[in-house]
Amino acid sequence: MNFPGTNTWYSTDEAVGRLRPRSGVGALQVSRRATADEVVSLLLSDQVALAQRVRTAVQAEIPVYREMASETLDLEITRELEPVLRCDGDTRALTVDEQATLGAVGEARARQGVPVGDLLRAWRLGIETLVAHARCLGKDRGIAEGQVLEFVQSVLARSDLVITTITDAHRRADRLEARREDDGHADFVRGALLGTISRAELRIQAEIYGLDPAADYVAVRARRLGANLTQRELERTLGLGELTSGRCGLCALVNGNAAGFLSQLPPRDIEGIVGYGPPRPLDHLAESYRSAARALVTAEACGLQGAYDIAALGLRSTVALDLEVGELLRRRYLDPLSLASSAGELIATLRAYLACGLHVERTATRLFVHQNTVRYRIARFEELTGTSLGDTEVLLEVWWALELSAMHL
Q1: Which of 275, 319, 370, 380 has the most CB atoms lying inside 10 A of its own CB?
Q2: Does residue 5 sit in helix, strand or coil?
Q3: Does position 218 have pLDDT exceeding 90, yes or no?
Q4: Nearest Cα to 250, choosing from 269, 231, 267?
Q5: How many CB atoms lie within 10 A of CB 46?
Q6: 234/231 Cα distance (integer angstroms)
Q7: Is 84 exposed, middle or buried (0-12, 13-18, 19+ CB in 10 A)?
Q8: Gap between the Cα atoms of 16 and 172, Å rounded
């Protein structure tokens, strides 16, 4: 093997990852002024070979890893070792990107059925191989033992951060998988949302599922998240599977629809329609769930996509649900317009006029018509309905009638 920037070829002892300079013509004259940084540089430049050594050692001792594709495993090992090699003595918290990458490895191991004990054994073997390799390089490059020891200590400190992130993600994925396999969790979700479970039982069940029974949660209700949605896809859609989201909770497919509760709000740009309620304790989730259901009905009626609560939807939630009042207002303000041959133009002008803050000039610009055309149409509406848009109550009722009409288009 030849490292970049040198003219020296090395033979490899695969058992311990030791590199020895070959004897004979072309052997490197080792410089005693070399530093530990060179070891790091050499390790980084030869990550592929290092990952292969680690994989060989791991597969030799742990049977479950023998079933994994070598190329995939090499790539994942490289990702695991990257933040350790690049630590440069830094033992601060991992970056968000590093957490996400390492968390994905932990989640993958959980899905592959690798027990956390085997995960830790594999990591220990990987670090032992890395340290042995670094010591050999240090000796071969004439680096003082103290400098190599300093590098090894920083690797071990950084290693703790990395393996903690991986195992935490593994355990979270394990818990989610256990929930999917537990038929009773859907009953718990339904009971918590409908308020049919006692406070004592709520606390017990929350502890069983790894939730904080004293925390507040937002209830969620969702529709049209995709055909044949699986439990795993539902959790990912609501943000439960994201390492950095900070969300925890439970959700389930209940009678083909999604329902649940989360410790934080669902993602705003969700693919589908989700209504969510205000944060409430577990024993008051029914209140949050009613609000979530109302937000969902409103968002669906308005043709919206994403996650909404009642506050974001405002008066539209009243328009969507109080159909009796809305129908009376529709008859009062929109039916008379059918007497005009240009009913569609009148309604379009009313919508633009309200959207432009009752500003004639802006309305004309939006509709690409003359300002006098806007004034004529507004006057025509007032004539047909016998009302005045200068009256605040009339203005609100017209807006209500228009919103209801839009929901039923």
Answers
A1: 275
A2: coil
A3: yes
A4: 231
A5: 20
A6: 5
A7: buried
A8: 33
Up-side HSE of residue 368: CA atoms within 13 Å toward CB?
0
pLDDT of residue 355: 92
3-class state of residue 306 by DSSP:
strand
Is 30 a residue whose pLDDT tops 60? no
Q: CA-to-CA distance for 271 and 234, rounded, in angstroms?
A: 11
pLDDT of residue 11: 39
- What is the H or E stretch that residue 11 is in? strand 10-13
C-beta separation of 226 from 188 below 8 A: no
| Confidence class for position 219, pLDDT limits 50, 70, 90 | very high
Residue-wise pLDDT for 351-393, tens only, equals 999 999 999 999 999 999 999 999 999 999 999 999 999 999 9
Q: How many other CB atoms sit within 10 Å of the CB of residue 324?
A: 8
Element (H, E) at 151: helix 145-181
Rounded to 5°, the CA angle 51-52-58 comes to 90
Q: Report how far residue 247's alpha carbon sits from residue 409's, in angstroms, rounded to the nearest whole number.
A: 37
* Tokens encoding 293: 């259901």
Q: Report in angstroms the alpha-carbon separations of 169 from 62, 164, 206, 278.
A: 21, 9, 20, 28
Q: Which two tokens stand for residue 41?
A: 């540089």
Kindly report the backbone phi and psi dihedral angles of residue 390, in degrees, each rounded to the nearest multiple of 5, phi listed first. -75, -15
Strand ranges for 282-373 from DSSP E: 306-308
Token pair 């989201």 is found at 245
The yes-or-no verdict on residue 335 having pLDDT over 60 is: yes
Cβ contact 162:83 at 8 Å: yes
Contact 30, 142 (CB under 8 A): yes
DSSP state of 240: T
Q: Which two tokens stand for residue 73?
A: 């495993």
| pLDDT in the model for residue 126 | 84
**Contact between residue 14 and residue 56 where contact means Cβ atoms under 8 Å apart:** yes
Residue 4: band (very low, low, confident or very high) from pLDDT cuts 50, 70, 90: very low
Report residue 33 as tokens: 């002024």
pLDDT at 334: 92
The C-alpha torsion from 18 through 22 and 27 to 30, rounded to 10°, is 20
* Centroid of chain to Cα 195: 28
Beta strand 273-276 with 306-308 is parallel
∠ at Cα 139 (137, 143), nearest 5°? 95
Question: Per the structure block, which two tokens stand in for 162?
Answer: 């990395």
Taking the alpha carbons at both ends of the chain, their separation in whole angstroms is 71
